[in-house]
Design a protein that fits this description.
By secondary structure, this protein is mostly helical. Helix content is 60%, strand content 0%. The chain is built from 7 helices and no strands. α4 packs across α5 and α5 crosses α7. The N and C termini lie far apart (94 Å). It comes from Panicum hallii var. hallii. This is No apical meristem-associated C-terminal domain-containing protein.
Length: 193
């Protein structure tokens, strides 16, 4: 009466009891260092003769379990043989989480390095394309000067710019002879966009 959660244990121990045993392996709670949250008056547990020599009085304690024989026997065996766990020892769950975070950090570091490499290659390709375009413009301007077209004739020089911006026209311009180049410049200078 008043404990509906106990009905779950009518058919026996929970199936996950072995996992709980494994999870709390080596951890002995004897009430000497634990307390019940919200309980203002600690429960005094009187230790038996074996425990009096080894336990200190820490003030706050939890009540001892009054559960089944298995629980009492296992707590007695842990109490008599185990010591409190080292504070620096991490639980399996914490170790697993730390391992996962380290793996995540390594993957992220590799991903960042790959992205930096990708961005560096992309920048190199862009710089190479710009250098190639600059060289192409220099070649076209030099060929235009060879045809007696210079910057002082603004209309013809704009024709040179239009040729340089049109990939097909620039290839055609560079493969033409000087008098054909000048005719092409004059044509592009007359064309209105």
């Amino acid at each position: 009466m008043g404990h509906p959660e106990w009905k779950k244990l009518q058919s026996g121990w929970p199936i996950y009891l072995d996992e709980l045993d494994r999870m709390f392996m080596g951890v002995a709670v004897d009430g000497s260092s634990s307390y019940v949250p919200g309980d203002e008056d600690p429960v005094d547990v009187t230790p038996n003769d074996e425990e009096e020599d080894s336990e200190d009085d820490h003030g706050l304690q939890t009540p001892q379990s009054t559960g089944s024989k298995r629980t009492r026997d296992s707590s007695q065996s842990l109490r008599s043989t185990a010591t409190s766990p080292n504070k620096k020892t991490k639980s399996p769950a914490v170790r697993a989480m730390v391992s996962q975070m380290q793996l995540h950090n390594e993957i992220q570091t590799q991903r960042n390095a790959a992205m930096e490499g990708f961005m560096s290659k992309r920048l190199q390709v862009k710089q190479a394309e710009e250098a190639k375009m600059e060289k192409q413009f220099d070649t076209i301007m030099e060929a235009a000067r060879d045809c007696s077209v210079a910057e002082d004739n603004a209309q013809l020089w704009i024709g040179v710019l239009k040729i340089a911006q049109d990939k097909g026209a620039s290839y055609f311009f560079l493969r033409s002879l000087p008098h054909g180049r000048k005719a092409l410049i004059e044509h592009y200078a007359r064309v209105v966009d």
